[in-house]
Amino acid sequence: MDAQRLRDEDDAIRAALTALKTSTGIPVAMFGTLLTDNRLQITQWIGLRTPALQNLIIEPGAGIGGRVVATRRAVGISDYTRASVISHEYDRQIQDEGLHSIVAVPVIVQREIRGVLYVGVHSPVRLGDKVIEEVTMTARSLEQDLAVGAALRQAEGGRGSSKAGRVMNGAEWEQVRSAHSKLRMLTNRIENDELRRELEALCDQMVTPVRAMHTTKLSAREIDVLSCVALGHTNVEAAEEMGIGAETVKSYLRSVMRKLGAHTRYEAVNAARRIGALP
């Protein structure tokens, strides 16, 4: 695994942990990487009070992480040291850290487990179904990010140029995103059907490496609205740009947020980028 891929995946995992802590308010978030010998290692964390769990190696089938890997299912534990559904090889480390309730969810890319996403609290609070659902949604988003990264590297490497394998930096991506949004807006002004279809095809080509994994169906108009939002337009500005009413823009946004499970317009933009609807 090359250094650039490691950096990209580490960045994606760190972003997932940060987003999870922000969205749930749960203080501890961790990621356990599945090693080649089927053991887990806690490689990234946020909110740990002690080094007890940092870089911890977890044997196959052991603890909550081992159970998640073995069953490929999410597991929620309300009182770790008394839980009957897991083994207890790591009770001392859990007690040293002071964790009480833990939820763990597998991260699976192309049918292979890549790791386990954890959240935990230090107080005797039960983490219910809503938390499990939130962690699961974050795991799915991380899976998309890891899969998209692999697809982009594969597409870049297949070009056979001297830049094979190069990943665009943040500034370059922002330029692509801005160009995509502006191209979508320009397409709306074209009355010639044939030319408009050609421009729409160009827009699709800008997200081709990830479009194959796009399972949530967004309409062309919904993507246009998101493109406006990505440029920072208000509903009124988007309506003027698209030649429709502001209430219609709101309707499209509500539909998009429902489909993507987003709570704000900016969450919707980020979710659309994760599934490849926007670059």
Describe the protein's architecture and organization:
The chain has 279 residues and is an alpha+beta fold. The protein has two domains: 3-156, Beta-Lactamase (2-Layer Sandwich); 170-274, Winged helix-like DNA-binding domain superfamily/Winged helix DNA-binding domain (Arc Repressor Mutant, subunit A, Orthogonal Bundle). The protein has helices at 3-24, 63-71, 91-97, 129-157, 170-188, 193-205, 208-211, 220-230, 235-242, 246-260, 265-274, and strands at residues 28-34, 40-46, 57-58, 75-77, 101-109, 112-121. Strands 3-2-1-6-5-4 form a six-stranded antiparallel beta sheet, with helices on both faces. A hairpin with a 2-residue loop joins strand 5 (101-109) and strand 6. Helix 5 (170-188) packs across helix 8, helix 8 (220-230) packs across helix 10 (246-260) and helix 10 (246-260) crosses helix 11 (265-274). The two termini are 25 Å apart. GO terms for molecular function: DNA binding. One of its GO terms (biological process) is regulation of DNA-templated transcription. Keywords: DNA-binding, Transcription, Transcription regulation.
